[in-house]
Amino acid sequence: MSTPTFERPMPVKTPTTAPFWDALAEHRVMIQYSPSSQSYVFYPRVRAPRTLANDLEWREISGMGTVYSFTVARRPVGPHFADAVPQLLAIVEWDEGPRFSTELVNVAPEDVEIGMRVKPVFCDYPEHDVTMLRYEPADR
């Protein structure tokens, strides 16, 4: 009996999230900024948090950040990821403030540290028309 193969789930672009995904396709990071709260915002939404103002605008950021938290998933998080262990799941805090859930690549689990500087890695999946944002150590 053969082992079933599963195609990994991919994000679905919506009208609210399209500018984020379109920028990633160009290997740029764009997130929203709220003038009323004078802060960057992530995840994409239609109203500013705290103020509920309709003033969100898209701005490009460097994508640079630090590892805020991480875990090493030694067992697959689902059957779609059976071939991807160990997986380094992380929360990166962008220099501009918001935090982003992601995966660390090009680094050994034992070399990951809280506070480690990281830079964006753009992973293109043309067959799905999507680019995923991953992170690697900034000194690479």
TrEMBL record:
Domain ChsH2 C-terminal OB-fold: 58-122
Segments crossing the lipid bilayer: none
InterPro entries per UniProt: ChsH2_C (IPR002878), NA-bd_OB-fold (IPR012340), Thioester_dehydratase-like (IPR052513)
Coiled-coil region list: none
Protein name: ChsH2 C-terminal OB-fold domain-containing protein
Organism: Mycolicibacterium vanbaalenii (strain DSM 7251 / JCM 13017 / BCRC 16820 / KCTC 9966 / NRRL B-24157 / PYR-1) (Mycobacterium vanbaalenii)
Organism placement in taxonomy: Bacteria, Bacillati, Actinomycetota, Actinomycetes, Mycobacteriales
